[in-house]
Amino acid sequence: MYLYIKALHIIFIVTWFSGMFYIVRLFIYSTEAAEKTGPERQILVDQFRIMSRRLWLGITWPSAILTLILGPWIWILMGSTPHWLVVKLVFVLILYLYHFSLHIIYREQQKGIYRFSSQKLRIWNELATLLLFVIVFLASVKQAMSWVFGLAGILSLAVVLMMAIRIYKKMRNKPK
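User: That's the sequence. What structure does it adopt?
Assistant: Structure tokens below.
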């Protein structure tokens, strides 16, 4: 039973993360569409609103809920709480807080409120990437993980991601 529950848990983690990564892309596209003028603006904004609603409510939220059900079920089947799991659960809590922050942005954009620039949304999207790396490494490497190496790795990844965002911004703003 344990392996079947674990497999389902992993599947719903994948679909949940896919939804979180893509919803921010839709937020970015919606924000950029809202900056346009004329009929193109309304057509794009309406389309991205529909796409966001279907993704967020049809895939991302159900996946987050099923992940939340299956994770503790695995924990119960494990019968213990190793140290690495406690640390992982802290990052999972942060991930759910991130998910709720996306829900706030989703609700605002559904009402036509665009508080964040596309650049800020690109940066915010990378928090999910960092959390994914931390959680997967904790779940895979477990107690064999070096905290110094792990922290250095995640900080290095954060620097690389921020540099990539800056390079992308320069490329986008380059005159054609």
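The radius of gyration is 19 Å.
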